[in-house]
Amino acid sequence: MKALVYEGPRQVAVKDVPDARVEEPTDVLVKITSTNICGSDLHMYEGRTDLEEGRVLGHENLGEVIEVGPAVTRVRVGDRVCVPFNVACGFCKNCERGFTGACLTVNPGFAGGAYGFADMGPYSGGQAELLRVPFGDFNCLRLPPDAREREDDYVMLADIWPTGHHATQLAGMEPGDSVVIYGAGPVGLMAAYSATLFGASKVMVVDRQPDRLRLVDKIGAIPVDDSAGDAVEQVLDLTGGEGADRGCECVGWQAHDPSGTEHPNATMNNLVASVRATGGIGVVGVFVPEDPGSPDALGREGQVAFDLGVFFQKGLRMGSGQAHVKRYNRQLRDLIAADRAKPSFLVSHHVDLDDAPEAYRHFDDRDDGWTKVVLRP
Ligand code: NAD
Ligand code: ZN
User: Fold this and answer.
1) Which of 37, 64, 213, 323 could form a disulfide with 163 if both were Cys (CB 3.0 to 4.6 A apart)?
2) How confident is the model at residue 48 (pLDDT cuts 50, 70, 90)?
């Protein structure tokens, strides 16, 4: 089958690789029809992880079931499914409680499994013609009959909409709250979209990319351009000096930090400063060490310092981590199906799998207008 493989820092290529196939009785085989490029792919693409060469990338996948293993009972051949980026068993301590992003069966000792990722198990990605989905009954989200016409909406259920939503939940958002979001990339835009949909009174999104700030405005949130002035001061001005009730980190480690500080903790300190005392912060941006092999890297998470003193004085609370996609995706799917949500508003490009390397370059360079790329194998 054709697939996009990692070949080294900023090098990906479309190659012929062995077909994905049913390997375990609980596997489902999916023919991929839509698969997105994600900001998370860039951690691997830019060479910040120890991903081995030849691995197939891609964790935001949607397609048609073409084969099921003998132990699969719920999912059927012909079903159209969206596949959460988490690989989860459904029966470990964490999965039982809904923490499917931290499944203990598929990646014991660390934090969950995912397709086409460094450090998250051996699973091959879906930027390919075929994808093997382990524990298929648990991991496949079946889609309604209009799925074929609305793939751009439903494919956002694999990762970025549940992830943006997760950021607001980690922050403890309730209806009526004001929310500040750092980062207007796909994840930040989805966090803003969720906050608006789930009843926030005011949603402010900080970035400096004009094309992305325009989308913030389009969904009824307030763009905060941090190239026009200090982000924290702008947020304080917009909240009568109090600060926002909730804050979301949707940036993570950035190779091109538009704040110009070149320092990955800029967003953390800004969040601590722009959320009101006793408010909540949700961190979904991923911080990876620049050199994963270096002895001073703090485990696999990278070192990010922020002002714990102010965090403490303000009595803030914080949640973080990979999204537990399964926890939210059925509910979010039903909002799409009922025509109450259209997360496809951020799709900027549809690209053939053959042209994926070019699309990676544009997305990585944050070229104007390259917000979200959907690959069509
Ligand atoms: P992206 O890189 O396209 O978007 C990041 C945005 O942040 C960009 O628009 C950039 O201009 C902006 N930015 C950079 N520095 C900033 C700063 N100091 N202040 C404000 N904005 C700043 O990526 P994305 O696809 O939106 O993903 C964002 C992060 O979320 C990545 O780290 C990704 O790995 C992570 N992610 C996490 C999960 C999860 O489950 N926790 C899932 C998906 C993605
Ligand atoms: Zn993703």
Assistant:
1) 323
2) confident
Kindly state if the Cβ of 169 falls inside 6 Å of ligand 1.
Answer: no
Domains of the chain (ranges, CATH numbers) = 2-159+324-376 (3.90.180.10), 161-320 (3.40.50.720)
Cβ atoms within 10 A of the Cβ of 66, count?
A: 14
* Residue 107 confidence class, pLDDT cut points 50, 70, 90: confident
What is the token pair recorded at 48? 């910040």
Alpha-carbon span 113 to 107, nearest angstrom: 6
Burial 240-276 (b: 16+ CB within 10 A, else e): eeebbbbbbbbbbbbbeeebeeeebebbbbbbbbbbb
Nearest CA to ligand 1 atom 31: 285
- Tens of pLDDT, residues 292-313: 444 333 344 456 778 899 999 9
| pLDDT tier at 118, thresholds 50, 70, 90 | confident
Which tokens go with 330? 């059925």
Q: Which two tokens stand for residue 305?
A: 């310092």
For residues 225 and 208, give the distance between their C-alpha atoms in angstroms, rounded to a whole number: 5
For residue 348, which of 14, 36, 25 has the smallest C-alpha distance? 36
Which ligand ends up closest to the CA of 36?
2
Contacts of 267 (CB under 8 A, 6+ apart): 182, 183, 249, 251, 285
Which of 250, 257, 270 gets mutated to test ligand 1 (max ligand atoms within 8 A of its CB)? 250
Q: Which of 61-75, 244-258, 294-308 has the lowest mean pLDDT?
A: 294-308
When comparing pLDDT for 118 and 186, which is higher? 186
Beta bridge partners of 12: 6
68 contacts: CB under 8 Å, gap ≥ 6: 22, 27, 28, 29, 75, 76, 77, 136
> Does 364 sit in the ligand 1 pocket, CB within 6 Å?
no
Residue partners of 186: CB distance under 8 A and separation at least 6: 38, 39, 160, 346, 371, 372
In angstroms, the CA 322 to CA 106 distance is 15
* Ligand 1 nearest-atom number relative to CA 267: 18
Ligand 1 site, residue 60, Cβ cutoff 6 A: no
Compute the distance from residue 185 Cα to the ligand 1 centre, in Å: 5
Read off the pTM: 0.95
